[in-house]
Amino acid sequence: MVRSVIRFLYKEASGLHEAAYLLAVFAILSQILAFLRDRLLAHTFGAGALLDTYYAAFRIPDFLFVTVASVVSLSVIVPFIVERERQGKAEVKKFIDNIFSFFSILIIIVCALTFFLIPALSSHLFKGFSEENLHRAITLSRLLLLSPIFLGFSNLFGSLTQAYNRFFVYAFAPLLYNLGIILGILVLGERLNVYGVAIGVVVGAFLHMAVQVPFVAWMKLFPKFKLNFDFSSIRKVVTLSFPRTLTLSTNHIATIFLISMASLMTAGSISILSLSLNLQSVPLSIIGVSYSLAAFPTLTRHFSERNIKAFVSQMSATAKHIIFWSLPITAIFIVLRAQIVRVLLGSGHFNWEDTRLTAAAFALFSISSVFQSLMLLFVRAFYSAGHTKKPFLINLLCTVILMLCAYGFVKIFYSFEAFRHFLEALFKVEDVPGTVVLMLPLGYTIGTILNGIIHWIGFEKDFGGFSKEVKRTLFESLAASVLVGTGAYAGLNVAAAFFKTDTLFSVLTQGLFGALVGVVAGSSILYLLKSKEQKEVWRAIHKRFWKSKVIATDPEIV
Hints:
about 80% helix, 22 helices, mainly alpha
């Protein structure tokens, strides 16, 4: 049995076709485990001070992973491995030894320095924490510093499994990461509270790395530490990864700022913010990441061939499908926000007030989901064209605007009673304490929408014709979204007449019925409008879409 599992995990996926279906299955399983992880966290701790310190403690290790560990990200390392494979395995081994040695010193030095800086950094970032909670956050952050080390090495090993078509083991690694966290909650959570969960995170990160080690060792490519670096190859890797690192870091700086502001608010605000942000990132992972990654090789090829017309056409086609999926999903999320949050998170210590506030934050985040997905596409399109500075500068500018908006809305919330009452009434949270936290997703959404619009304008300026191609789909999807939202709301009211909201089954039934009515209404209007994207999706399903090629993604968060 064990040997069969091992053979399956380390089996080569010839031509990548069989890997596509299994990678999709593993991605769905990983998302299910992520939902279970968040539900267990909410159930065990509720939206309170303990969970706040856990999420706050993630910020510094998470930032280190995005910045330092991106040096060995898949998208950077794999092309170098493939290039050296043509020269023989000895060249691959030499390259891996070199990168491993450099990264080992880099990540250990940075994490060691950060270990001593964490008390000062945490005291500035989380000024609203009590002395006890600040001490807990510092201890957790120091423990979690092991996570970017393990995940960074896992990235390096993952580059080898990807380069040699071992997609299964790479896809299996995130499952082990989430399983480690879940085991930490179940086994250690009650006895050690959030410290037990942090241990689970470290164990999950170690398993993420360890599951890839046997194949690397079997290929005789397990790296050896050496001090005689080949700085020419290191320079090439760092040069290639640097623009991506800068762009990613701006997004995480914005998140750190929001968490920092939430620490000054009511206990549980960081938990509300983090859980709602996790929920709204699901369509981004499924739609934005998938479409932008799938388009990236084709965009690069078209631009390298100086076929700008085909380049813009590919961008338009990809953007239309992102809009086609994202807008209706946004409408469903906004209308069914309470049902979604209650089903996924509502149990144990996560009470009805937590549900309502998380649902409101979730809806505000979701408004920007289409722009988040389009931003991923625009950034990769600019990278395809060799324009690495522009997306960084746009992200930097909009990160500053996002932070100013969040700060400004908090000031307005406290200064203008009418504004506060309007937002509380709009999201039906008038009697819930701590509603000021909603200003943070509101600021995030406005900054993100502006970011997407500026990226759109910048791309249109450089490569004219994009907007003209996308305009029809945008209006069709907006019309469909209105009907999806209206249908979901009507379906929800009909279901509410038959099912009360006192059980998980009744809440789930309400949400599913509302979603079904909304989807039918939206699909009908798209059919009447003769939506090209709807027809393409239907054809893709009939053509067995799982036989398309696979492009593996980089893990970008801890």
